[in-house]
Design a protein that fits this description.
7-stranded mixed β-sheet; alpha/beta; 6-stranded mixed β-sheet; 679 residues; Rossmann fold; 8 helices; single chain
Length: 679
């Protein structure tokens, strides 16, 4: 019977009887999926008292009636039924209030990246504007953004420690930046917030690394188990204005000292982005002198620093503190734009000391990158004015020097190339090498790609072209010179088992592209050069065409046919009697019988009697014989509850070992062929 493409509904056949059964089955399944959510996705055993219409997502390793149904959707209608999801199927999970989507391998919560093994950690420092004390702007919580609360990593939630707790949903620069980063790049983002109102920069540098606020930041890094900071966000300077006795010159010196201290920390290093934020420039309370210092970060010698603009942003009315909406814009837009503009951006870390770096055109390679990987998303050129490939390397001069040199020592290359050839030198001294010669038609003797490979020919016309020499095989694989194991000529291939030419099997290729022995799209012929099926065995006269025997003395043609599970499906005994497999005793579970063989003895789940209301397993068109066990009364129920899958003449009880009922499967329904009440 034909089925639909996605949900595998049985489709109506022409002149089909009982069309209502097929249609109702499909409608019930649609009813289970529409206007409904999965109750749970973490249960490993089915609930004991499910209701019709209940659906669950089955986790890996489920047991009982859910065994072997990993990631499938289970839905209950008298019995458990299953739907195999396609990639992109989405369903709401009720007990989590989360929407999950199947990505082809597993169920992923919407918004959760599949690369959540990557961790990006932010250190946020400063005074009141970094504390973030005012509500406004987007206050959404992202389940993949975490904050260190002094004791644990918790989901970063505005209004909950370590963020400002007095004002509900008070916005925060670091929180907005982190959510923007996670949305852009995925993974897990972490925030360490070390900020306090009314603190001058001296609290970070006045006593060096022992300064109160600086020491607090380093202590939080250590306590949280963080081994690598990926970005530093800084917003501070209001407390250092001229009204408090500060000066722009001193602030510049202190800011440089802070950067020097941070760059010396093993968890930070010299290449972590440091992004500051401009102070408010509103009304009569001008911060031009401090902002002039901060904006020097955009052009100083440290190319991994920058300053986010505060232009057109508003205060709460005091000309000092950004309002909540402006704090959100600062973090999610202004700070993030600076971060992405920096010539070096770290986008990957997993708690170890690894990094990936991007260099913008024209920037200088930093001196401390000797142990780091250099990654470019675009093309990379070395000595090339115009880049033609992902990596384009031009020779340093016109002399006969190697374009790329990988050597054990100076003057001893392992690999080098010139205009017309590449030399792979296994010894490193030029005496042992393999040459790969490139021709004008872009074909090579040894190649991997869109060209062709030629052996003993400069003009290969196939993917691999081996040109034989006169009187020699085209390909020879031998144990010793002159003793090939495999060789070929124009019309045959010889596989020589002895290596001497005395014992071999010939594989003969004909014009029809069929072969005597082959694996692939052709056909296999035995005693015929023109097979008309995948395996064509031709006998002569009255000979048996196909004989399968366990030993040479057996006379049966086909003794047993056993499937991959080791179950006998068909059997011919020594007297040529034919049977359809072994008799299996199968236990009834919740009035359901799950079968694999054609001949089954049902066994009661408990006690001396039981019912069968449904049969699972089997293939369309399969014939099933149920036999009584003796000492048990097993009743096969007709159309149980009006929706059962057993369409028999009437209920039938197997009371003895000589009672039988024979059924045939059509779609999902079993129909009665015959019954025998001999007990």
């Amino acid at each position: 019977m034909s089925t639909s493409d996605n949900l595998k509904f049985d489709l109506l056949e022409q002149n089909q009887a009982q069309k209502d059964v097929t249609i109702n089955e499909a409608l019930i399944q649609v009813d289970a999926l529409l206007n409904n959510g999965a109750i749970d996705k973490d249960l490993t055993t089915p609930p004991t008292t499910p209701n019709n219409g209940d659906i669950y997502i089955i986790p890996t390793g489920a047991a009982s009636n859910w065994a072997g149904q990993d990631n499938n959707i289970a839905w209950f209608n008298q019995i458990w039924r299953f739907i195999e999801p396609n990639e992109g199927m989405t369903i709401w999970v009720n007990d989590e209030d989360v929407l999950y989507t199947f990505d082809g391998t597993t169920w992923v919560a919407n918004g959760t990246p599949t690369n959540n093994n990557k961790i990006f950690t932010i250190l946020a420092m400063g005074q009141s504007n970094m504390v973030g004390r005012y509500a406004g702007g987007d206050a959404t919580t992202n389940p993949d953004v975490y904050a260190w609360d002094g004791s644990n990593w918790v989901v970063a939630t505005l209004g909950v420690a370590p963020f400002y707790t007095i004002t509900a949903n008070a916005n925060n620069i670091a929180h907005s930046f982190a959510r923007k980063y996670q949305q852009q790049y995925g993974g897990e983002v972490r925030i360490i917030l070390s900020a306090q109102s009314a603190q001058p920069i001296a609290e970070w540098v006045g006593s060096g690394t022992a300064s109160t606020m600086y020491a607090d930041a380093m202590a939080q890094i250590a306590a949280s188990g963080t081994t690598k900071i990926d970005a530093i966000l800084w917003h501070q300077g209001e407390q250092d204005r001229d009204l408090n006795g500060g000066s722009a010159v001193q602030y510049q010196a202190d800011l440089n000292t802070l950067l020097t201290q941070l760059r010396a920390e093993p968890t930070i290093g010299k290449t972590v982005p440091f992004i500051a934020g401009a102070l408010l420039d509103e009304g009569s309370n001008s911060w031009d002198d401090r902002n002039d210092v901060l904006t020097t970060l955009n052009g100083d010698a440290d190319i991994w620093t920058g300053t986010a603009s505060g232009a057109d942003l508003a205060s709460i009315g005091d000309e000092i503190h950004y309002n909540g909406t402006s704090l959100h814009v600062l973090g999610s837009e202004r700070y993030f734009e600076v971060y992405e503009s920096l010539p070096y951006i770290k986008r990957e870390s997993s708690g170890s000391n690894e990094s990936s770096i991007w260099y913008q055109s024209g920037t200088t390679t930093p001196a401390n990158t000797t142990t780091q990987d250099i990654v470019r998303t675009g093309k990379v050129s070395i000595n090339a004015g115009i880049t033609h490939a992902a990596l384009d390397v031009d020779p340093a001069d016109t002399a006969d020097n190697a374009t790329i040199l990988v050597g054990r020592g100076s003057g001893k290359p392992n690999i080098k190339s010139s205009d017309s050839f590449m030399l792979v030198d296994s010894l490193g001294d030029g005496s042992g090498f393999a040459g790969m010669h490139y021709y004008t038609n872009d074909n090579v003797i040894l190649a991997n790609g869109g060209g062709k490979v030629g052996v003993a020919t400069n003009n290969p016309n196939t993917s691999l072209h081996v040109e034989p020499r006169t009187g020699e095989p085209a390909i020879s694989v031998g144990r010793a010179s002159g003793q090939p194991n495999v060789k070929s000529s124009d019309d045959f291939m010889v596989v020589d088992s002895s290596g001497s030419g005395n014992g071999y099997a010939a594989l003969n290729f004909y014009n029809s592209d069929n072969v005597i022995l082959t694996y692939g799209g052709g056909k296999v012929g035995v005693q015929t050069a023109f097979p008309d099926s995948f395996l064509d065995v031709k006998g002569e006269n009255d000979e048996v065409k196909l004989k399968v025997r366990a030993s040479a003395t057996q006379t049966t043609n086909l003794q047993e046919w056993i499937d991959n599970a080791g179950i006998t499906r068909t059997k011919v005994d020594a007297n040529s009697a034919f049977s359809i497999g072994d008799i299996n005793t199968v236990g009834i579970v919740s009035d359901v019988l799950t079968i694999e063989n054609n001949f089954v003895i049902p066994s009661s789940e408990s006690g001396s009697s039981d019912d069968i209301t449904n049969i699972l397993g089997g293939q369309n068109g399969m014939i099933l014989v149920l036999r009584g066990a003796g000492g048990q009364n097993i009743t096969v129920n007709k159309n149980a509850g009006g929706t059962g899958a057993l369409w028999i003449n009437s209920n039938f009880t197997l009371t003895s070992s000589v009672d039988t009922i024979t059924l045939i499967k059509n779609g999902s329904v079993w129909y009665e062929l015959s019954r025998s009440d001999n007990g």
